Amino acid sequence: MPDEAPSGEVTRPRAQTLLAPRLLAWYDRHARRLPWRAPPGTAAQDPYLVWLSEIMLQQTRVEAVQPYFLRFKERWPTVEALAAADIDHVLTEWAGLGYYARARSLYACANEVAERHGGKFPRTQDALLELPGIGPYTSAAIAAIAFDVPATVVDGNVERVVARIFAVETPLPRSKPELRDKAATLTPQKRAGDFAQAMMDLGATICTPTKPKCSLCPWNDACVAKARGIQDELPRRDAKKANPTRRGIAYWLVDPDGAVLLRKRAEKGLLGSMIEVPSSDWIVGATPDVPDGAPAAAEWQRLPGIVRHQFTHFDLELTVLAATVKARNTDGLWTLPDNFGDVALPTVMRKVVAHAMKHTAYTPNDAAQMFEVAEKPKRRKKI
DNA sequence: TAAACGTGGCA
DNA sequence: TTGCCAAGTTT
């Protein structure tokens, strides 16, 4: 029997109205302290920092985001500062975090906010949804966390918590609409931002994908999955098909100064707008023949070993070929390894760099030191 | 609707 | 070593 619901509020059984206060009480005691998060129940947070953190957190763990968030916050403290930045500097700062379309959308969004919204983020979910890189999750998260709008925030954590609380046995992603609707029945009218973060904290620390810590859960007495003993099996998922393996060749070309030829990838698509060691196409099947995709004619020497990398939808195996040239005979970004930290090299390309520097002695003096630079470019000097 | 789109930690 | 999958969005 549904309660009488105030206008705009989701109708829900009476028992469910008790759940949100219990979770908020748990959150008041157990909220993780994160650099983008104000303490529970305190003043509103800077919408710019909420937005920045939420974009970074898309499909990305808190631990991976933290150093990136702190560097962005320090370097670009406001949305106007970010909008005024050089996009390549933004991509360089993003390098290693993955899903690089997020960084391009981040920059586009900053410019829209700066130019069309007077530097202020819109306060409604619908208006936020219009901005680049902001979808259903992020619009709800910003509305709730930055503006205290009672929006329902649904991410992977919330889906897992809700699937267990209500024992939803339909596999993901088919169950998404049902999980969203059930999550909406839990969302309170007040402290929706804290509630959203509480749900995500609960999912991240208690209601974990494997071995959930039900004894510590503020909702354990209400959880249908736990009552049935199937909490470890939920949420179910449709089987995924195996990833294919693609193969290619990376070309490590060095000039007499020790500068290495790099180039910028196509603006969009895989690793869009990022910097790479020139390479062939990456194709399913056998490794392409030399000199497929080679940036110049040279006496290419195959380096021992292979560079492996896993993307979301395929595995990659790169053979690395190296050569030296007497002059910079082809266009590109000839870059000294000391400066690799200043370019937007994605992780797969850092692996190529590390591999090439390990197996070439093109700088006889201290290849080892340069290898270290390639392996750990995150601690780089300011540009 | 389904595929594309990164990376890293952990079992 | 391999597979899972995480504070999702875009096309």
TrEMBL record:
One GO MF term on file is: 4 iron, 4 sulfur cluster binding
- Which keywords does this chain's UniProt record carry? 4Fe-4S, DNA damage, DNA repair, Glycosidase, Hydrolase, Iron, Iron-sulfur, Metal-binding
- Looking at the record, the residues that make up the HhH-GPD domain are 56-205
User: InterPro entries, per this entry?
Assistant: A/G_AdeGlyc_MutY, DNA_glycosylase, Endonuclease3_FeS-loop_motif, Endouclease-III_FeS-bd_BS, HhH-GPD_domain, HhH_base_excis_C, MIG/MutY, MutY_C
Cofactor note text: Binds 1 [4Fe-4S] cluster.
Give the catalysed reaction(s), semicolon-separated.
Hydrolyzes free adenine bases from 7,8-dihydro-8-oxoguanine:adenine mismatched double-stranded DNA, leaving an apurinic site
Record carries keyword Glycoprotein: no
Cited CDD domains: ENDO3c, NUDIX_DNA_Glycosylase_C-MutY
Protein's GO biological process: base-excision repair; mismatch repair
Tell me its family: Belongs to the Nth/MutY family.
Role noted for this protein: Adenine glycosylase active on G-A mispairs. MutY also corrects error-prone DNA synthesis past GO lesions which are due to the oxidatively damaged form of guanine: 7,8-dihydro-8-oxoguanine (8-oxo-dGTP).
Record's protein name:
Adenine DNA glycosylase
Q: Which organism is it from?
A: Roseiterribacter gracilis
Source taxonomy: Bacteria, Pseudomonadati, Pseudomonadota, Alphaproteobacteria, Rhodospirillales
